[in-house]
């Protein structure tokens, strides 16, 4: 079940993955399987059979150049004086350097540069003001860590027969709670029956595939304990009064899977709203609205509905083109080679096309696509991007290229249109984006809008720690 | 360029691939690179650099259980008394057993069971009635082979500085001709410049990516010679008078890439017409037309347009689910697990849905999808299949499961609806399909309709050779 | 140079290996390359080029079932408050469980079960009685660790521009010091010139291959500091008064390479002496003395010289038989299959043979060899083993099978002769072995004999810690 | 059993291997397993289980740069008009080019450049003068091939339930016959019992390991048929009257395993005789005779016995050094690095050493070994080579480097001694070699000496075909 859940989260990280399960009572009874690569390859029947127990945690990890090593695979398991602890972490500690210094000065050696080891070593030692005559007080240790580390993290921490689910007080990274619903015993094989259960996950998109239903999000600062007795909130750590919630808006724009739910709404719906808002902000007279499959489809449908223009497909994707690929010679590149896509020529010929995409990062792919459509006979190609220009790095868990690589730091919209050969190019505004993701939430006070838009505006929640100033 | 072309043909075969190039004059100057796997992996920079010459042929091969061996990779290179010959073959020889017997009785050993070796050995020996005082007469040898082997094949045969492109007299397998257009020398790197050139391919979808334009199809029975002097028809081998052309209709339905052109029309358009025809044949009162991404999308748009119902997305695809995968337990299967897809719940809730797909083969995947949509709140789910029931094996190059595995041989439409949990299920009729693929061709005389529909009707063009009777 | 040295130590461990080098001043300038497998495969040109600096440590690791994981590859690198520390360890901590408990109770998490991590975390924290106002006092920290951990270890610890070489106070595991001799500048390429340098190693056999000369052994309890200024003894930790030195005698018998020097004598010579002693203890009337190549050759030569019998080869080794191999059927096993060896039939026919080997562990291989010799015509085959019966486990770094697997715990010499089909079988006595390894050392007082013979006698130096009692 | 036999022949080729077995009656019932690599890796349990039948042939193939491809793995299987034929070939066809031309002009295509395919296609076609009204006459076809191809080959040809064993009329390549002896049924598992059987092999060294006994060699020109009824000579093809037998003398010198039997004598004995003869031809005053392990050991023992000097070991081999290895810098090479060997210093110090090796090819390894011995204290090092200088290429199956690479074509014995730093260096004479290999054969008329010494003398048996003249 954890494995199926991770398959649904594979888009959040393809570098490595792992699962740790627990037999409960004894602290020695962890089963661990971790490795480099995709879930499908890592978790064959044999690997799954070896994972014993009735609770567990899993993780899929991002591909970042710096630390693509086996030793950094999560969940991170550490042996403590009270038995083994397993930790999985979504996010990035903004003040990791100062946290690191503290741990090292305590006389603890660190064998990796990963945040997970840092969190683990932080939890291994009971703070002075935490009394533990009855055994380890994990919630108190977690609270202590949270007061030292403002963001960004969604965490699961497993010890014996309990899992703690933790979200930082800014709510920067997503984390939601689901309920596993028992199936009708009439049909089920007796061995397969499952009592009621609970699950937490960065995204809800895997819930249906494991027979679970979305219940609610874990609140910013909340520490939830999952055990045989269900779930209960054991603590809520507040953020500073003058600070607003800072949920990563990039999850809506790009990162999350479109069937996930955040704040009670489907990501697909938010993207469709972005397309509608974009049509309002940058309308056009054209024959056809289309998208770069599959990233821009939701927004393109939104644009089409709002504008009243027909939606139609203009590109066909080559399913078999991987990431690493032969470099065509200059001559072939010049031909506007778009080996990833083919043009549906008879749909395009003589048409004025609005092509919608979700975002522009380095700006490398859109030029060849426009060339391809013109070669296939399009008379005009207008680009509409359903998010604002991406301009700033993220220190909270999203892997954004350097400022120099971000095309929006080099060219404005008109220059970019020119550069890629579009007849026009327009972005969604930051205000428009915030409005769009709140469109379906009547109850949200837009003045209190709680989103982290740092990659778009450079305004980091809680400010940037000194160690990160650039 | 050949490599990029093969990437665009990767959907036609993922088991193995190869390229042979020729330096022209000398018969010893073939460069060969072949192997198991996908183009991306086989053809790295080094492999490509080693392929020298200015003409060449390439091939991607199908995954069929029986002969997944390196020795069967194409193109097949054979050394003859007149130098090396390279052959690539799309199709399957229906009378291979009798051809084989003839070759063996001539005292020739065969080291594989592949059709390519058989074709090669047939061409190695000049037939008695072919006089060759001036050197080998390849067109005459090819004609001789064609008279012995009625179908099915599209062939390319390379010798020294010439390539022969051959299509069987029934036109069963596709083959088309394209022109490589020189680019503006002003911008091009001098090394990358390319004079005019010619290309033949099973599908036209790769043409744009290599700077070529679709010219026409190679005609049934035609032998085209490509050389430094351009192309010319050197012979046309007729089929028996009483026989009609028999172009594989399954190429339209399923096999070809949607941006390819056959008979002057785009495959996507033909599929959209199938959807329109389906709406006429099996209309419905519903809230939403959708498709199983991405196979049914063109037909779904056609259905929506014809029926006037709105089109909307209901499924989100997990890009990272490969073919080999963990087997969920019965319990999880029962939950209607569709790990490949997620439901866009807020689009589905309370809706009556028409779900369009291009074909049903074994019928394994549709059930879990329906279950997923119902779990997500759909009130009705109706299945519409944009092709007739698939019931018979193909002996002409398409890898269709055994009759026992084909669900249409076990259940009729109503039984199948029941079996997969649909509110209704309807197929397109054979007549409807033939009509749909001719819809855009005003010039085609429908009475002379020239399609092989053997997998749908059991009527094999030219009859079944004795050796294949079952 | 480190890499070549490790190649010469490959016999000490084939599971994994690693090298860490240091650029000296800055604590961040470690280069690390580790992995599973043999030196030849792990250290290609690229890997070696990346290892920068002018000091470094390396390790090859044993194949033990329990912990064959990448995470356990040595050297172990740990980040401390004073910069990175790299540690390589030969041996096994007999009281690791109590050391582990201490570290955990200090609030430190441990992520592996390896001794190396334990040693590293022990060194990370300055003990209370060590004052460090001028920076870390590594020798004092090492001494502190040594007082807690009696045996068994030879250690190298690298920090910035210094390496500490440490041998436990019992001298259980070997460690020796060598001097790198500058070569004649007249011939040397300028880039290749090397000033004088120093090296420590578990065995001296690699010294010649890196241009070094054997100087002396590191003394039991000695802490040597290697730096730009040469080497100096910074401390000597004493063992309890009533305890004798306990150098592993199994190094002489089996483990070390025959060209290594221990205690001023060549291992080959010690083995030859064992053969001589064996001839005295168990003489025979025979035609030929031979050995199982190549393990018993030195002892066989000794036996031949002492007995006056001729030495001759009787077996030919198949160089290409690896470890994992096809299991012959019972029938073939019965035939006395010895696929690893062939018999030199014409040397064997009609002869009475004394076959000498260095040791018997499980007793599986000798039977088929005897059968092979008899099939080839030998009239008598007598087995002489140049070491006493192996009966007890080792907790100090040698990977000996379980007591149940050791044939000497199941059969005495006569029973074993019967079991393997020998005409007679005799072991060397423990006294004889100790005498033989001291034969060349006039200066050694045999009454103070300082060897660990635990695997032969069950007498563990320092007694067995409670946690290991069985 | 075939697999075990191939393991014993692994030294004859490590590039690829294969086994084909036959179920007998039906020509379709061949099981084939072939691939690149060593027997141990290719033939796991599963592979062996799939090989069905009670007769079969196997092959291990040489690593030659030109043709290291899967397609060249042997045995070669070809389908003929009379069913499948499997062929394995030891040797090289000296007139392959003219044979090739004949086959091609018959209208047969060849897909490889291997001799095996050529032989196969030759056998596929019945020659005009062979009448086959009762089915294929394989012996006649084989005889026909043998009259066209003088040498060099030992062949096994399998068809249905028969195997033909063939040796060329010069007896150039070895081939011998063995009898599989039934074992005592009292002990054998019923399934493992084996009736009497027959085996042919290039060398006899594998016979003991499969329960077989050496019977005799296949005679030059002999065609033996093996079947359910045992073996029988079906034909003997004579060589030209004026030609002598030409058995490859290099098999004795270097290639064969020392426990194999040729012409009634053990290869080890022949090598020992070479050492004796060498001592007679090039005697010395020295302290110790030793060898480069393990290639020169037999000859060194011979030299020691003849000269009366003591034999002793001076080098210790590193078992773990593979072929591909890190390139030491010039500095390290200069140090006389011999990473493959260590010096047994205490055996060498102050000694005058005769170092015997079997042959010198490129002369790269002996220099560093001499340097190593001098570094270890040897006062003199004299090299004695138990074969004549290797100067000419072989076109009959032995992979000898080019003339330019052979050190004997650049330096004479004295120059070479100088070059490698030896005090003296001497080869065995050609006459001495021929005498030595006949020493034990009282019955052989030395005037009729039947050896191919082409690589030593440039005199090719039967002369060189024009196509090979250089």
UniProtKB/TrEMBL annotation, chains A, B, C, D:
InterPro entries: GATase_2_dom, Ntn_hydrolases_N, PRTase-like, PRTase_dom, PurF, PurF_N. [4Fe-4S] cluster binds at residues 248, 394, 452, 455. SUPFAM superfamilies: N-terminal nucleophile aminohydrolases (Ntn hydrolases) (SSF56235), PRTase-like (SSF53271). Its cofactor is Mg(2+); [4Fe-4S] cluster. Pathway: Purine metabolism; IMP biosynthesis via de novo pathway; N(1)-(5-phospho-D-ribosyl)glycinamide from 5-phospho-alpha-D-ribose 1-diphosphate: step 1/2. Residues 1-229 form the Glutamine amidotransferase type-2 domain. GO terms for molecular function: 4 iron, 4 sulfur cluster binding; amidophosphoribosyltransferase activity; metal ion binding. Mg(2+) binds at residues 295, 357-358. It comes from the Eukaryota. Its EC number is 2.4.2.14. This is Amidophosphoribosyltransferase. It comes from Drosophila melanogaster.
């Amino acid at each position: 079940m954890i494995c199926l859940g991770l398959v649904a989260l594979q888009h959040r990280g393809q570098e490595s993955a792992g699962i740790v399960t627990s037999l409960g009572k004894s602290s020695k009874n962890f089963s661990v399987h971790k490795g480099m690569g995709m879930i499908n390859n890592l978790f064959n029947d044999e690997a799954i059979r070896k994972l014993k127990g009735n609770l567990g945690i899993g993780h899929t990890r991002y591909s970042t150049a710096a630390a693509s090593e086996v030793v950094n695979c999560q969940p991170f398991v550490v042996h403590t004086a009270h038995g083994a602890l397993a930790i999985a972490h979504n996010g990035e500690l903004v003040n990791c350097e100062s946290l690191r210094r503290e741990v090292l000065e305590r006389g603890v050696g660190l064998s990796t540069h990963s945040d997970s080891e840092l969190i683990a070593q932080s939890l291994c030692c009971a703070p002075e003001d935490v009394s533990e005559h009855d055994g380890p007080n994990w919630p108190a240790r977690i609270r202590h860590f949270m007061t030292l580390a403002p963001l960004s993290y969604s965490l699961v921490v497993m010890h014996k027969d309990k899992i703690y689910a933790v979200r930082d007080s800014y709510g920067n990274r997503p984390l939601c709670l689901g309920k596993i619903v028992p199936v009708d015993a009439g049909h089920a094989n007796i061995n397969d029956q499952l009592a009621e259960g609970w699950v937490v996950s960065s995204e809800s998109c895997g819930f249906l595939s494991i027979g679970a239903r979305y219940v609610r999000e874990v609140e910013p600062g909340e520490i939830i304990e999952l055990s045989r007795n269900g779930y209960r909130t054991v603590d809520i750590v507040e953020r500073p009064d003058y600070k607003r919630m800072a949920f990563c808006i990039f999850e809506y724009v790009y990162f999350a899977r479109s069937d996930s739910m955040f704040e009670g709404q489907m990501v697909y719906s938010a993207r469709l709203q972005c397309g509608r808002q974009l049509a309002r902000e940058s309308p056009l007279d054209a024959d056809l609205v289309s998208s770069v499959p599959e990233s821009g489809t939701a927004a393109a449908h939104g644009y089409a509905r709002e504008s009243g223009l027909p939606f139609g497909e203009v590109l066909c994707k080559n399913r078999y083109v991987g990431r690493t690929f032969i470099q065509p010679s200059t001559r072939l590149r010049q031909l506007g080679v778009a080996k990833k896509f083919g043009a549906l020529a008879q749909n395009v010929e003589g048409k004025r096309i609005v092509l919608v995409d979700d975002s522009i990062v380095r700006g490398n792919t859109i030029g060849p696509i426009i060339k391809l459509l013109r070669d296939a006979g399009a008379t005009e190609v207008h680009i509409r991007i359903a998010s604002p220009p991406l301009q700033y790095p993220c220190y909270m868990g999203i892997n954004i290229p350097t400022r120099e690589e971000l095309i929006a730091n080099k060219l404005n919209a008109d220059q970019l249109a020119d550069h890629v050969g579009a007849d026009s190019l327009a972005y969604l505004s930051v205000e428009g984006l915030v409005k769009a993701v709140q469109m379906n939430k009547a109850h949200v006070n837009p003045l209190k809008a709680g989103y982290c838009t740092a990659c778009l505006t450079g305004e980091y929640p809680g400010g940037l720690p000194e160690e990160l100033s650039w």
